[in-house]
Amino acid sequence: MIEASIQFGERSGVRFIDTLGDGKDGRVSKTSEGRAVTFFNAPDLYRRESRAYQILLRRNIDEIDGFQIPRLIRCDDGLYAASDEI
Prior knowledge:
With 86 residues, the protein is of the alpha+beta class. It has 2 helices and 7 strands; from the N terminus they run αβββαββββ. The chain has one domain (2-85): Phosphorylase Kinase, domain 1 (2-Layer Sandwich).
């Protein structure tokens, strides 16, 4: 997963400054731009979450029942990574 974060940084020009979480589904890192990038451990997890965020983005949904939904910034299908606002 370290290699994926290096490649993502090179492709998108971001620099990682902190780890926000690490668990069975993957790791979430914070960028110097104040965004979160999730690196998923499995392709199906990545596809499901990125698809959900893309639907919300297309429908301009940013809140559900009072909970803010982070706005999707970028997906990388090759690295199973999704970047969104914190």
